[in-house]
# Entry
Amino acid sequence: MSPPNRFGSLKPTQDLNRTGPSLSSKPNSEFVLRPNSLLLYFLLAVCVPLFILLHPTL
# Structure
């Protein structure tokens, strides 16, 4: 009886954990995508020229 009870208790906790982050991740992802996109463009603008300049030297 103890193993099924443990698995049974784990299932709802996982469901609650999944629904919690999923709901919170939706609004957070919208705000996070904007700075992440700016960081990605900034990293691309900095890393690509550096890689092009350092590649011939390697």
Observations:
- Residues 18 and 35 are 25 Å apart (CA to CA).
- The chain is about 95% helix and 0% strand.
- The helical segments are 2-57.
